[in-house]
Write a structure and sequence with these properties.
Radius of gyration of chain A: 17 Å
Strand order of the largest sheet of chain A: 1-2
Helix content of chain A: 40-55%
Oligomer: homodimer
Number of helices of chain A: 6
Number of strands of chain A: 2
CATH architecture of chain A: Orthogonal Bundle
CATH class of chain A: Mainly Alpha
Shape of chain A: elongated
Strand content of chain A: 5-15%
Chain lengths: 139, 139
DNA sequence: ATTATTCTATACTGCAAAGTTATAGAATAA
DNA sequence: TTATTCTATAACTTTGCAGTATAGAATAAT
């Protein structure tokens, strides 16, 4: 039930891009160095973020990646749901076909409620909020 | 970030014992049959539940397992926290030694808040609550 | 006492997913 | 034309989940 490195690194990746939102496209190499994560791994993680149109990219020299929307409009909940493959704690949450007992299962609704409480918390925080917090922490 | 079968099966195991709380010790074989889970696996899962004194056991013929407290006094949150190895979403939540950035990390607190929201939901539900719900669902 | 039954302890195994790296190719600014 | 950066696909390694096996200890029933 722990978060994977995908969503944790992905959040840091997005946060790094948020920090550089006004500096044009940033290359992954730079982000990798700053965050201490391998470029190759970040290249994997950024794919779904591009597909979901949170990130735009440009190839070639002076290329790089940049947020497709301002940091105020992207929440951590969206990032985590994307990289963790859904905002649920069980397969049965939004697909009752995977379990015969789904319709009478007393815990199914509970797992759903718990996941919702968790994601409600994450969706209340934007990248801009995290940036502010970073500055506050560094003082 | 999905729940493991350990906590899901563990919850069903506890729920089965809750249902039989007034029938004396139940052997795992019976529970395994009812729940469609292998005895061997349940034997593994029940160990931490015994250590944490949620379950008492008796060996020999007519032996079996029984809840150590009434179903009203055991919450799903306790079971899940026990079987998922803590009520957190990251290793750093309650052990900052695992990450250099722990003290300035802007996401660390957020992962903690999210986990807390989730477990607050799970801790609000007891085995007795789930039993009631089961009856309601079967009507 | 002996036996059948049930739990207990420990160790092992298979497999899928997580995490990571490698290679080759396509786009583009200089 | 070249250097640079992203893109696509595949391969690899490690870890941990899920499940099984074996041997042993306790105890109720006979």
């Amino acid at each position: 039930m722990k978060l994977s490195t995908r969503s944790r690194y992905g959040t840091r990746l997005m946060l790094d891009m948020a920090e550089n939102y006004n500096n044009g496209p940033i290359h992954l190499m730079k982000i990798a160095q700053r965050q201490g994560i391998s470029v190759k791994y970040l290249e994997q993680i950024i794919i779904p973020l591009k597909k979901a149109e949170y990130v735009k990219s440009l190839r070639g020299p002076k290329g790089g990646h940049i947020l497709a929307k301002p940091p105020e409009e992207i929440t951590v909940g969206e990032i985590v749901a994307l990289l963790e493959d859904g905002a649920s704690l069980t397969e049965c949450s939004y697909n009752e076909g995977v379990c015969e007992r789904a319709d009478i299962c007393p815990t199914r609704q509970l797992w759903r409620d718990a996941a919702q409480a968790m994601f409600k918390t994450l969706e209340a925080v934007t990248l801009a909020d995290l940036l502010e917090k970073t500055k506050a922490n560094q003082k």
